[in-house]
Design a protein that fits this description.
The chain is 58% helix and 4% strand. The chain is built from 6 helices and 2 strands. It has a two-stranded antiparallel sheet with strand order 1-2. Helix 1 crosses helix 2. The N and C termini lie far apart (43 Å).
């Protein structure tokens, strides 16, 4: 029986991809920029909530996406968004819906990084405390 140090569940699919490896994988700078822009579409700013792009979410994704499977899945999303570069928020939202249907695991990986990264930011924690009156 093979064991793993890390198992993550994403929807109905499981990954056991963290055996000790000598190399960390990384997204490119342009892929990170595209994913941050996607974050702005997924979680638009308003008067109480800051846009993901105005936080350090880019650094969060860069530090966190080091496993080959995460980088591959996030790269798939970034490449799909790059194909419609310069599109408005509605076109990006439509492309995200297409990705969600065509590759639910890639979409779930994106959601995890965007949501966890966003809610880990100090500005967002302050907004939660102020707007929702909770710790």
């Amino acid at each position: 029986m093979q064991t793993s140090n890390d198992v993550q569940r994403r929807g109905k699919e499981f990954f056991a991809s963290w055996s000790p490896v000598p190399k960390h994988h990384r997204l490119t700078a342009s892929q990170l920029d595209l994913l941050v822009g996607v974050g702005d579409v997924m979680m638009p700013a308003d008067e109480a909530w800051v846009a993901p792009s105005s936080t350090e979410i880019r650094a969060y994704i860069d530090r966190g996406a080091r496993r080959e499977s995460d980088v591959r899945l996030l790269g798939l999303v970034a490449d799909a968004i790059a194909a419609i570069a310069g599109a408005d928020g509605d076109a990006i939202a439509n492309e995200l819906e297409r990705i969600q249907k065509a590759s639910p695991t890639a979409f779930r990986c994106l959601q995890e990084f965007v949501y966890y990264g966003y809610y880990a930011q100090p500005e967002v924690v302050r907004a939660i405390r102020d707007e929702l009156d909770c710790d």
